[in-house]
Amino acid sequence: MKKFLHILLLSSVALLFNGCISGWGWLVPYNLQPSYHQFKKMCKLNNYPKSEEKYNRILAYFDKSLDGSIGKNGYAKIGYSNRIDLGVYIYYKNPNNKTLTFKNIDKMYFRPIWKNYAPNIYGNEGNMDFRLKFDGEIDCRSLVGELDG
Predict the structure, then answer these.
(1) Tens of pLDDT along 39-84?
(2) Angle, alpha carbons 90-137-120 (nearest 5°)
(3) In the chain, alpha helices (H)
């Protein structure tokens, strides 16, 4: 009996770590996944007070700083890693002047999205078409509530 419990424990630990390595996030709790802790750290940037330091930290993920331009519409999105996508929305005080300076920024929303690959069931009951997709995502609003730029 003792040997059976030992084998059961080792096989379950091996299965959990195999899920971490292979990216099966639905097998492993969020707190055991390193990308989740990185995502939570990024979400904490939204809680900082409005300052040049906050904006420079956010823009550093996009290889930008407060002396350049991020785009014509004030939005940028990149794939930061295999499981994290980053987006930033910038609202300018003067919409005609899109220079990226602290005085010209009204609000900046930083939107990391973490892909947890949890299974979601999609379907249409009318034609009995059901699909299982592994495309679950979590954004910062589920951790800290509404963002305040």
Answers:
(1) 888 888 888 888 888 888 888 888 877 776 666 677 778 888 888 8
(2) 145
(3) 2-22, 34-43, 52-60, 141-144
8 Å CB contact between 64 and 101: no
Contact between 50 and 56 under an 8 Å Cβ cutoff? The reply is no
Pairing mode, strands 119-124 and 105-115: unpaired
Q: Tokens 């592994």 — which residue?
A: 134
Residue with tokens 């996030």: 25
Instruction: Label residue 7 exposed, middle or buried (CB < 10 Å: 0-12, 13-18, 19+).
Output: exposed
Report which of 1, 7, 25 is spatially closest to residue 120, judged by C-alpha positions: 25
Provide the phi-psi class of 71: left if phi over 0, else alpha when psi is between -120 and 50, else beta: left
Q: Whole-model pTM?
A: 0.65
Provide the strand spans (E) within the chain. Answer: 75-79, 84-92, 105-115, 119-124, 129-134, 137-139
